[in-house]
Amino acid sequence: MGGLGFLGYELNSKSTELQQIAQNNAVLSTKVTSLEEMNSMMQNSVKIELKGVANHPDMLADVYWHTSKKVFLEIKNLPAAPTGKQYQLWAIVDGKPVDMGMYNAKKDSTIQEMKSVNNAKAFAITLEKEGGNPTPTMEEMYVMGTI
């Protein structure tokens, strides 16, 4: 390969390398922005600790209830849901359970935004069939916390 051919190869290789670095920087910047937004959201939230019920005393999760009524769930100590099952968050409003959505375990985060709610007095998590139930299966409650 002649000198100019080698130089062209080197430049092409460096260009690809720079493109990869720029792409990595963009991904990292997005993650940092997301973390900063999450931190701000948590600072303007009430933290409700959900402790294990009698059948699951060592289980633990936190709900962050933002002033905008957005709800975030952080799983701290719950076993992985078995195949065909998912954890479902409930808010207790006027003495009745309100579906707050299903927890979808992700490798990169233990915090997930759930549905928004007004006037909740408590939160609880049950283990339900995948996709959830319209009412909680009380025998499958893992954690609960009052406000």
**What's the overall geometry?**
elongated
Radius of gyration: 22 Å
The main sheet comes to: 8 strands, antiparallel
Low-confidence stretches: none
Share of helical residues = 25-40%
Bin the strand percentage: 35-45%
Structural class: alpha+beta
Overall residue-averaged pLDDT value: 86
The number of E-state strands comes to: 8
> Total number of helical segments?
1
Q: How do the strands of the widest beta sheet line up side by side?
A: 5-4-7-8-1-2-3-6
- Quote the distance from N terminus to C terminus: 73 Å
Helix and strand run = HEEEEEEEE
Brief description of this entry?
This protein is α+β, with helices and mostly antiparallel strands and 147 residues long. The chain starts with a helix and ends with a strand.
